[in-house]
Design a protein that fits this description.
Blueprint: H1 3-21, H2 30-40, H3 47-58, H4 67-84, E1 94-95, E2 98-99, H5 101-104, H6 107-126, H7 134-148, H8 153-161, H9 168-193, H10 198-222, H11 232-255, H12 264-275
Antiparallel strand pairs: 1-2
Length: about 280
């Protein structure tokens, strides 16, 4: 299974779904809506949305059924990038080859655009939910809120900013919340919308957490010549960090072994996420 081919195949559907879920840039308040769209389009590889689709496919569903989850996780991811780039956080001027939202607009607008993307994510998850899938949609909302909040992404960011992570266990705790929680919930939300039961969802969540930490290690390895900050490269060195990433990937793939051929797109995406060279 070619992960890049899977990403390219589904990218147009994901783009259309994101476009439909967001207000047009011309709709008032136009400045806010333009700021919301600024970092969503053009996006990155759409890995998290693709993981949602592959999660649905892995449990025997059609990938399309997970599009609401795909849209929601990409909106949460983009909101986190908008806020990470703010002067009070990482103070970055460029993202995805273009000015960050606070540079292109202003800081207050960037804060509000991030807020609006976060709330739009939950609306996307429940939009057009029929009576047959409302329970699954609500469970996905709960999971996404947990992954995005104090127990997940936000809490991980707090510890990252506070330099609370010193040893390997502390670094992995930050990665588990700031990076892996959203990757895990991408897979789980897609599988939920396809009707997966709790035992399967638990295995998917475990795989997502392990692969998500490995994904962040891979990012840190690619940026090893920069200020490493909260990084296993700093704690374990290059070889130690690579070995840990591979061990976590193997752990993730082992959790997915029982899914058979249906799980191959998901396994391929996780392999790509951890072994990519850019």
């Amino acid at each position: 299974m070619d992960a890049l081919a899977y990403l390219e195949t589904w990218a147009p559907r994901i783009e259309r779904a994101l476009d439909a879920a967001l207000p047009k840039a011309s709709e008032p308040p136009a400045r806010l809506h333009a700021a919301m769209r600024h970092l969503v389009f053009p996006g990155g590889k759409r890995l998290r949305p693709a993981l949602a689709l592959a999660g649905a496919e892995a449990v025997g569903g059609q990938p399309e059924i997970a599009l609401p989850a795909a849209v929601a996780v990409e909106m949460v991811h983009t909101y986190s990038l908008v806020h990470d780039d703010l002067p009070c956080m990482d103070d970055d001027a460029l993202r995805r080859g273009r000015p960050t939202v606070h540079v292109a607009f202003d800081e207050a607008t960037a804060v509000l655009a991030g807020d609006a993307l976060l709330t739009a994510a939950f609306a996307a998850l429940v939009a057009d939910a029929g009576p047959g899938d409302s329970a699954q949609r609500l469970a996905a909302v709960r999971d996404l809120a947990h992954a995005a909040g104090a127990a997940g992404l936000v809490g991980g960011q707090v510890d990252d900013l506070g330099a609370a992570a010193g040893d390997a266990a502390q670094v992995e705790s930050v990665h588990a919340r700031k990076s892996a929680a959203l990757i895990a919930v991408s897979i789980v939300a897609g599988a939920r919308l396809a009707g997966a039961g709790e035992p399967v969802l638990a295995r998917l969540a475990a795989a997502g957490r392990a692969a998500g930490i490995a994904f962040q290690i891979a990012d840190d390895l690619l940026d090893a010549d920069e200020d490493e900050g909260c990084s296993l490269v700093r704690v374990l060195g290059l070889d130690g960090a690579r070995a840990r990433a591979q061990a976590l990937l193997a752990e993730a793939l082992d959790e997915l072994a029982s899914l058979g051929a249906a799980g191959e797109p998901l396994r391929a995406l996780l392999r790509y996420a951890v072994t990519r060279d850019r």
